[in-house]
Design brief:
The structure is a homodimer of 320-residue chains.
Chain A: H1 5-12, E1 22-24, E2 31-33, E3 39-49, H2 60-78, E4 81-91, H3 96-112, E5 116-124, E6 128-138, E7 153-157, H4 162-171, H5 182-188, H6 194-200, E8 206-210, H7 214-225, E9 228-232, H8 240-243, H9 248-257, E10 263-268, H10 276-283, E11 287-294, E12 298-303, E13 306-308
Parallel strand pairs in A: 4-5, 9-12
Antiparallel strand pairs in A: 1-2, 3-6, 4-6, 7-10, 7-11, 8-10, 9-11, 12-13
Amino acid sequence: MPPGEFELIARWFTRQSVRSDVLLGVGDDAALLAPPPGQVLVAAADTLVAGRHFLPGTPAACIGHQALAVNLSDMAAMGAEPAWALLSLSMPQADPEWLDGFAQGLHALADAHDVALVGGDTVSGPLVITVCLLGFVPSGEALRRTGARVGDLLYVSGTPGLAGAGLELLRSGIESFDSTDDCVRRFLHAEPRVTLGRRLRSLASAAMDVSDGLLGDARKLAAASGVGLRIELERLPLAPALLARWPRDRCESFVLHGGDDYELLFTLPVANAGRVAELAQATGCELHCIGEIVAGEGVSCTRGGRVVAVPGTGFDHFAG
Amino acid sequence: MPPGEFELIARWFTRQSVRSDVLLGVGDDAALLAPPPGQVLVAAADTLVAGRHFLPGTPAACIGHQALAVNLSDMAAMGAEPAWALLSLSMPQADPEWLDGFAQGLHALADAHDVALVGGDTVSGPLVITVCLLGFVPSGEALRRTGARVGDLLYVSGTPGLAGAGLELLRSGIESFDSTDDCVRRFLHAEPRVTLGRRLRSLASAAMDVSDGLLGDARKLAAASGVGLRIELERLPLAPALLARWPRDRCESFVLHGGDDYELLFTLPVANAGRVAELAQATGCELHCIGEIVAGEGVSCTRGGRVVAVPGTGFDHFAG
């Protein structure tokens, strides 16, 4: 007999919290939490839908990881320290094997970031997972999308495009879910840049996470800050795992349009550019200057100093 | 052409907040919020699935209302003051007419409780709605399920059973969604007992909301407090709208087993029983003593002082 709702919560989603700021976790009508004094609360909620955000057959542990990772990436983009998560899990049936995997993936990433699961909901329905993640940032230090200024430099962390390429390799059947290919690994195991985000608090003028494609997300940053962005295409970091499989222009397309990167796109005043090498070393994360902030609006791309047309925008869930 | 994801958020879910503690609302990677000093943060997340939590054809405004109401009820059960909501909305398509209704229902209830919508997610997928609601309670004053003591009195607010009866009237086609029947109204427009919950802080020894049926929820309260509950069946409040349609034993069954009441079940030390009439008057809410706390475990029901067997437990989403 499959486990009931209350056994399910007790068995897979109730753990002794190691955080002393969790006054009351899973099991009552709501969680009771003690925000640290002098800090601002940061709150995000992201949803994964089966067949939209993950492929049929995706290992449950990867889904559990991803459900939290997408929210950790939002915390990273704000420069916040994540703390507490609420999980809403709608699923067709309570399959113990699937739940073992899902909980393992979720809890492992939560542990790595000292996040406590404090509440949520489990219901029967289509497989749809929402995590609401709460964290803190010292008052006045949050990173926003609105602070980019003309003359600032534009950076991206890591090597975007790998995840989008990994999705294509899985979709086309070229690679399987247990592949050790760098692209597939990155797609299935996003590594949200939480440490980098925290370190950027005092350095960056604006930041956001890249989840819907670098170019489309850059347009959002430009719009939020009321500036233009100029991306120099020859400065885009092209990962060896991309170049090993595809021609250069295809690699560039993955970098500009691929989704699910969960890297950080940020702007730095020129005066802070000298701190980047040290920051990359401290966070173990490549940081690439890919352009600059200019007067105007939107994003323009250049190659060899000349503006070139680049089609496509970011992913829109409800685009016609 | 249907609206895109970003137009959708801008048009239906971005409103100027009237709360000065919202430092940054919808539109960045996460919301920035200022919890009041000296208060504990209260967090809950509840999910509605089409066909499970609401019937096919339910007016969108009722779904928007319900999505927030179920979470407000959790705040009420903790004695908390609600403040900020995050909405995760998965829906098959962005239908402007449906969104008009949904947003109207959601925002009207949010306004009534001074709740600001500060973030969330919109994705395409099956109709599944999660609201994460955050609120506050003064440190040490939250109501929990664990505080009931032997000798305390057991109370329920309002007239439970109406919503379950309303669901049956709709399901059977006896009444339609625009019916003015009290049962149907209560099912479609839950009135979470937020004011009552706040007033109970200093009076009640334990509290929870009744959402899965009074009897099953009473069993959870008993288990959490490590006590037994004795319910005197003749003290159950039977609403006129129930008695007008059904025989007395059927009405009792709606009260004990019907879901979606969103009333409060709470326990009072006998010394506080004299405050109940004043509390009912102040909150405009009937309060009925239906039993007491006894040594032991579980819930027993009596009629004329004799224990009688009552079948059935609360609703379990994954019961076999």
